[in-house]
Prior knowledge:
Radius of gyration of chain A: 25 Å
Order of helices and strands of chain A: HHHHHHHHHH
Strand content of chain A: under 5%
Strand order of the largest sheet of chain B: 2-1-3-13-6-14
Structural class of chain A: mainly alpha
Oligomer: heterodimer
Shape of chain B: globular
Shape of chain A: globular
Radius of gyration of chain B: 24 Å
Number of helices of chain A: 10
Strand content of chain B: 5-15%
Largest sheet of chain B: 6 strands, mixed
Number of strands of chain A: 0
Structural class of chain B: alpha+beta
Helix content of chain A: 55-70%
Number of helices of chain B: 23
Amino acid sequence: VQTVRAVPTEQARRVSRHRGGRGIQARREERLAWAMLAPTLVALLVLSLYPALATIVYSFQHGGSFGIGMTGFVLSNYQRLLHDVQFWSAFKFSILFSVITVAGQMVFGVALALFANREFRGRWLVRAAILFPWAIPTATNSVVWAYMFNDQYGLVNGVDVREAEKVDGATRWQGFWYVTLPLLRPTLAVTLILRTIQSLQAFDLISAFTNGAPGISTQNLGLYIYAQIQQFGDFGYGSTIAVVVMVVTLAFIALYLRAL
Amino acid sequence: VDVKDDMTQSTAGATPEHTAPALSRRALIGKGAAAGLGVAAASSLLGAPDVVRAAGRRAPQSTVKITFAALLDQTGELANEINQFNHMHSGRIYVDYQQLPPVATDQYTKFVTAFRAQSATPDVVQIDVTWPAQFAPLGWLAPLDGYVKSDYLSQFWPSARTVGHINGKLYGIQRYMDVGLLYYRTDLLHAYGAAVPKTREELQQLAAKMLSGKSKTGIQYGYLMPGKKIEAIVDEWLEFIWGAGGGIGSPGNLKVNDATAVAALQYMYDLIYRAKLSPPGTSTYAPNDILALFQNGQAPFMRNWTFAYALANNPSKSKVAGKVAIAPTLATSGHSGHGCTGGWVLGINAYSTHHDEAWQFIDYMLSKGTQTSLSLNSGLISSRPDVVDSATVRAKLPYFAQLSSILSSGYNRPQLRNYNPFTTPLQAAINGVLSGQGSAADALNGVQSQVASLT
Lengths: 260, 455
């Protein structure tokens, strides 16, 4: 096996393009690319595609408990969705949660990034403060916030939260709108897609913060799937809801890819 | 999809120490594939469980190692009991204590994951009283009938021996008991020259009187109850129903929205919003939260579990230590209070390869000696009346005298194979009402259609 030694020169590339076909070098690079991708592809197939397909199969089965003794090819799980008050409540909350959290993340995220990008004394401290929450697991964070909202000894109830930043002049705003934002667009597009997927599949944050309460008003699809599968052992119905999440996620991705 | 990822680990990690001998290449491939595919259902297709069972057989005369999974015990008593057993059976049986997280639903998830993967460990499980009826019909628990005769069972409280009886077989015996209690402040009752309230009306009048004189009593609330969306609120609601002479039917024919049931939930709402005896934040409080308020001297009455007794009377943790006593939960006039019973049950994993050793350990844990130590050192209520009523235990824990009578009038929750689909919508409905989201009747009517035919 020959090793790829050097990047082809500009001249060589031009020559190969001129000939109309792909050069040996290009084909070799392609093979190498596939070889390097192979482990990831195999891992993705086994770890993601198989469970995804299994979920779809389960969604057409019913009966049994915890996946034991399931039978048939039925549509009853999907029919049940239509009349399930809890499902629609969770569905609405999931969408609402996504829209609000992603919009909030984008606006405040960009604002914080611009702020941390300015030259000022102690900038390292601000940057560290912005990155610090990433080091804390979501579940831990949620528990801390739940305590902050506790009506007996919480911080938030009673503390007057004021606006920290004032709006800058018009020129800066225009600079941001016509220069910075267009430059950030590709990055924002990717971020938007990833954050939307993540927010649609949220579980740990809500589970640790409210666990769906009061009532079922903050129960999202993730929590409802967990209840059906892990608590009730209803793999068929739980999988059906999971398929809905898959479809909604794919729809959002398609929307973004089209729009951006 | 996320949930299934959990299965991967347990299928793969089912029996790591059993893999050494007699594994054919094909079996290994099968096992590896089952682990890699990440769906426990795959393991039965590929015959992995048989591998696990066959490989689990060990050469005779070596020490048999069994695993006991139970919630974390902060008192150290459980670890001591296990050490004692290991000492007594040195060279023959060794019990490894697998500590589980304190929250019941987390333990439930761990057990279900292990059982679904047909894992041979843990061998002995300590499970909530509502779980045997869920696990046994799925073939996850081993019947104990071969080890237990009826005179053996008569040593335990009635509910402790019936809790594991499912479809005519015995799948578990309770290790310790729990029951819902009304806690009250002896000093405040004395100051007002009042008797311990038995009915809702008596409590309401007394608490309101104490609350109006709060400059004197230092209290802020009249009555504390858990209101968070957890199992405890269903139990408390059941206690209000039972205390009014009502019930919720039987498996297959459950009725959660009759007049008594609606009135019970309405009363819980009224305690917060009309009588204003319970804190406005009640719908977010777990038993620990209300205990903290009670320990701080902020209320004369509280509904809580037995664990709260030692903590409310501990001078280093409580401002009201020594002034706290217990009584039956509330009733309406003409009826008597019935606390909701709970606690933890010992059983054997059906996939365990060491049933005999597992039973020896359970037998030891249920013996009078071990149970006496349990009550004396951890304050937990033994599942044996001869321990709870013994002079040694009474000398150290005088309140066990009252517990004994409260326990014998306690009621069990319905024994349902589908307990979670029963309790989860109820928890949401009750919590929703306590959060001011809707009427008690509407909330319970909504649950009725979901749970009516559950078995």
